Amino acid sequence: MEATPIVYDLVIAGGTVVDGTGAPGFRGDVAVSGDRIVAVGDVGPYRAERVIDATGLVVAPGFINPHSHTHDDLLNPFIERDAKASLMQGITTEIGGVDGRSPVDIGAFLSRLEAEGTGVNYGTYLGQGSVRAHVMGWAEGPAGEAQLAEMKRLVREGMEDGALGLSTGLEYQPGSFAGTAELVELVKETAPYGGIYATHMRSEGDALVEAIEEALEIGRQAGVPVNLSHLKIVHYRNWGKEDEVVRLIEEARAAGQRVFADVYPYRAPDYAVNRPLAEWASALPPEHLLIVDGAPGELQGLTVAEAAALLGLPESEAARSLLARHPNTRVVALVSSERAMHRFYAADWSVVSTDGEAQPKLATAAEARAYAFHRRSYGTYPQLFEELVRKRGVLTLEQAVRKSTGQVADELGLKSRGYVKPGQYADLVLFDPATVADRTTWLSPQEYPEGIAYVLVNGHVVVDRGEWVGGRHGRIIRRGEE
């Protein structure tokens, strides 16, 4: 007697399931009904409204971006509410309110976003810099007793309204005016709610070691996990600090402190994109300065060292000679240590982030360069799988998926996202591991990737055979609701 077929809305058939746990991928089917995954592996005899043939594709959880500027400002014309740039690279969940910047009224902000809709699932931190500005304006120095009490009240209110924790941007005013003791007092307010301290530290270069020590001390005193935001080592003179950075993090973890870092896979931070060569000529060797504008077309896309060789100039005089010929030359400064980045990714305490936003695609590459748009908003996750997995072997496929999905969910306390298993929300990405590729370049920073075949958000197909379908199917993630 034949078994009665199970009825599903969607079956993804014949793919390699890489489930977010870090375990080896396996051949299996994934069945979806409504907004949930209901079966994985052998899903039995079935009928489905749609079957996606995933032969040759990886079936993974949708990527969770723990450091995003999407939706930071609902009125910003350079942010797409539908989040196309994020979804096209496989991101299905984004966490904002980072770098100390967020709306102060988290409840009203999330309610508005929920009513207007979002293409991606979205959660947020409360930004300490925004809270301080609300209470103290741009006043320097420590908060007074009444001011500190009001800031603490706002932190509690933000946590009760669903914030994931408190973020800081300690290279930015006015958040940077707060001392360690003040920050400890504010972060302590998040502890009863299970909050996280996410910090853009006071330095990523000359004072990086001291900045990490401060971040860890704040987490210890406040009794909360610490997220070191977009960890990197900048400026050539500091690249030798990676051993000390790794030692501090691993010693803290060995002592029982919860610490993790998010990392994006590009060597230029946003402040080093499309900058005058004159600003950077003495800061980096010529092989770390990439020409993008202000010079003849045949030099664009070359490093200053390569341009010097093409022009027959001595490398020791490359930047000065190039500026003499083309004084308006603009460059991308590859200021972050690539070796440190790879080492951080290989560590078990790192996860993947973009530090980007869902930018609308502009008409031309030149226009995107003029706005100094960064490649990470369009290419981070394809870059990860193309460069760090397929080409360089820094990570295995399963490790890269875990650092983009399940590990992020675990660190953030998301119970129903980040894994391909029954009961999880059906946030999924299907990609070809042999062809997935970042198509952005520093000359053309807004290009959709190759190899991302399908993306699902809460059971809805929003990228279909590599083509944009869209729809605002994302959900608001409030702390404690997952």
From TrEMBL:
Q: Which residues form the Amidohydrolase-related domain?
A: 58-462
Task: Give the Gene Ontology MF terms in alphabetical order.
Answer: hydrolase activity, acting on carbon-nitrogen (but not peptide) bonds, in cyclic amides
Q: Which Pfam families match?
A: Amidohydro_1
Cofactor(s) in the UniProt record: Zn(2+)
Q: Which Gene Ontology cellular-component terms appear in the entry? A: cytosol
Q: What is this protein called?
A: D-Aminoacylase
Organism annotation: Symbiobacterium thermophilum (strain DSM 24528 / JCM 14929 / IAM 14863 / T)
